[in-house]
Amino acid sequence: MTENEKKSATALLLPLAALSGVLAGLAALAVAEAVAGGVRPQAGPVVAVGGAAIDRTPAAVKDWAIRHFGTNDKLFLQLGILAVLALFALALGILALRFRRTGAAGVLLFGVVGALAATGRPDSTGITDALPSVAGAVVGAVVLYVLVGRLRPRVHTSAPAAGWDRRGFVIAAGAAAVGSAGAGLLGRSLSGAGGRDAVASRRNLVLPAPASRARAVPKGARLRVPGVSPFVTANSDFYRVDTALVVPKVDATTWRLRIHGQGVRHPLTLTFDDLLRRELVERDITLTCVSNEVGGPYVGNARWIGVQLADLLAELGVKPPSKGGTADQLVARSVDGMTIGSPVEDVMDGRDALLALGMNGEPLPFAHGFPVRMVVPGLYGFVSACKWIKDIELTTFDAYDPYWVKRGWARRAPIKTESRIDTPKPFARPKAGTVMVAGVAWAQHRGIDRVEVRVDDGPWQEARLAAEDTRDTWRQWSFPWQAAKGGHTLTVRATDRTGAVQTDRRTRTIPDGASGWHSVVVTVG
Question: Tens of pLDDT along 117-129?
Fold first, then answer.
């Protein structure tokens, strides 16, 4: 065989070797997900490695991801992981063409990484979480070993490509592809079956009428201005920012909440029915994520039904520090391993801190914490809003740092006084004349007293405030602007009920929430 023929033969085999690596990778992932469907979906290698990546990502990078990708940040992370795996699979396939065993060993190595990631997660249930990654890696290694074997010259054949088993390769590659598809479908079916009891428990749940109903929203609380955020945020539109790559589906009939720690006379374990038998209250509360940039979308208002957390803690003997209590931090733990620390003083100061069961007239959606989550007005979500809660421990700030605190965020984070222009949108081109500028302002648990708008560098002018529902909800506002032709900058600021004026000093979201005035630039035609 001439040198050119050898090069041509090698050029033919390299793409097939790379394809072998990809098929081996697909087989590994498909089998792993199928096994994870029988163990638990969170033990799958993509989810486990993704969770480990989230845990080790610097706070600034996480904040950047949320800012640029929004609630799709997890999708982009998973796609990134799959892209990296695909590149490694290509490389392993090419490597295996020359070093067959080394390539197969590389697949096994990725199985080890996945197993370590799964068993090292905070919500790991033990060594069984390693099974999906191990099983997938073994199958992937075998597939790669077999496929590359079909590309090697047969005995007594010196030509690199002349003697490879074309028919055997096509059959083996086809079998690997079909088997991967079947394993993938099996995994999807098993994962769905695992959540059916949870889905049924939510579907069959009828929330009792609350003993203390929220008052009717005042008529003037909803402005009829096109483009302004609705006063009540629909469940489907409510922001979701968390670290769960797979939304936990918890069966309400088997759910338990343990309350224990400093100042608790007797540890208590509650069932969902135990909570339903307690006095339920209904409250309108606006939540805000600490990752919300100035003018950002991660704020929403809903009507919540739940149990007063302060009453429950008081029954167990817990006292706030101001009344002699020994615990100053309440650490809530989620089924996915998240830990969130809230000041005991704030939870027990009379505000409507809830163990919420319902949201806008229905059981909590799975994405928002079903069956039970915490809601504490006036605190950013990362220090209050534990979803899928399973454990409450009374401790101190000195004794324990929750998840976000370990990553550079503040221990205490009351929501800052903020306002936002919803309409006109940035770079809008309204016509000259009366242009309605409108938006929302919030300062939960303090309330909004005034909103002002400034056009370019002109004087601040007071906007019209919609009626207040409660001090724990946002308020809509509007300002009829007599717009002249040309480019203009509109700026808004709010003043809360304590007299504090929203600061113009721009800060990042890290460590305790963004601050600054929201502005939009428009061109009037």
Answer: 999 888 888 899 9
